[in-house]
Amino acid sequence: MNEQLHIIITGNSGKTVRLPLAKKKLLVYSISAVLLIVILSITSVFSVSLISRNRSIAKELASLQSKVENSDEVIAEIKRKADEEREKLNVEVASLREHNETQAAAFKEEKELLISTAVSELNERSGLIETIMDNIGVKVSDKENSKSQSSGGPFIEKQPAEHDALLYKADTYLKTIQQIPLGLPVYGQITSRFGSRKDPLNGKSSFHEGIDFRGKRGDKIYATADGIVKKAFKNGSYGNYVVIDHLNGYTTSFAHMQKYVVKKGDRVKRGQLIGQVGNTGRSTGPHLHYELLYKGKPVNPQKYIQTAKLTESKAPVKIRKSATPAKVVK
Fold first, then answer.
1. Which helix (H) or strand (E) holds 313?
2. What is the mean pLDDT of the chain?
């Protein structure tokens, strides 16, 4: 059976037109039409979405382009400011360099002036020390040359440097003078000098190996040079007794002390307190018996006391004179 559909079209005149149409064809045509409509709809949706996306991308591109242009302006401004700062820094560096050069020149001039002044003062001080050592008959040994037996190496001639030689000379002199007993060990009147005398107790002729200084109990007694305490004890007729070894052949001893404040082995400096005036041992009154020995032999301390006026000794340097010395004995 042939399945057909008939489409009848009737006009106003009553004429009728029949259009036979097979069902299968109609179905095919309908499906095709539906698919075409669906495809067109989907295409339209995608087209609209694409157009919208393109517009959005175009806006983003325009925004990015604007930002890039702004960034270029910012970078240019930063570069301009950096150039300005660099120029300022260069000016400051040049100013500092000029200031440093000026300051260096001033320092150099001041240094030369200081060296010149120091050399002059060292010359003067060395002359005074030489006078002192000539007065007491002390010779300064050249320790630098004495050590040459155990040395070696290539010979390199030293360039002349007056101030270097003077510094070495003054340093050697100062170290030497620091260990030579100079000045007074105590403030007090000299009541018995070095040499022959009559013993104050028995009236017999005797030899006084030191100098006696009258004082009050408790008066301070000072070391007259750097050294090491060799003895500090109660020594019979000497009473409380201290001996200092100055490590250069000289020793000083202090007798009849009320007390001593150092002990054996102590290192002492010139002007350092070592004890107090007293009346211990064979003595007729408060005083200090002061002895100076060189290589074990007693020497007159008076010459060393007098030369102390030329130094900056910490020990007292003035002698108080007395019209009627007290009778004291070592």
1. none
2. 78
Q: Mean pLDDT across the stretch 279-306?
A: 91
Q: Are 283 and 239 in contact (CB under 8 A)?
A: yes
Distance, in Å, from the CA atom of 303 to the CA atom of 254, rounded to the nearest integer, reads 18
Return the SS3 of 285.
coil
Asked if residue 193 lies in contact with residue 301, where contact means CB atoms within 8 angstroms, the answer is no
- Judged by phi (left if over 0) then psi (alpha if -120 to 50, else beta), residue 100 lies in alpha
- The predicted model gives 224-245 an average pLDDT of 95
**Helix or strand holding residue 193 (H, E):** none
CATH number belonging to domain 189-310:
2.70.70.10
Average pLDDT over residues 238-257: 95
> Rounded to whole angstroms, how far apart are CA atoms 15 and 275?
165
The number of C-alpha atoms within 13 Å of 159 and in the hemisphere containing its C-beta is 0
pLDDT at 75: 87
In this structure, how many other beta carbons lie within 10 angstroms of the beta carbon of residue 293? Answer: 20
Q: Tell me which H or E stretch contains 227.
A: strand 227-234
User: Given CA atoms 53, 54, 58, 64 in this order, what sign does their dihedral have?
Assistant: positive
Strand-pair partners of 251: 245, 293
Return the C-alpha torsion angle 112, 118, 124, 129, nearest 10. -140
Q: Nearest CA to 275 among 319, 234, 329, 306? A: 234
B/e letters for 55-75, b = 16+ CB within 10 Å, e = fewer, are eeeeeeeeeeeeeeeeeeeee
| Distance, CA of 78 to CA of 69 (rounded, Å) | 14
H or E segment and range at residue 216: none
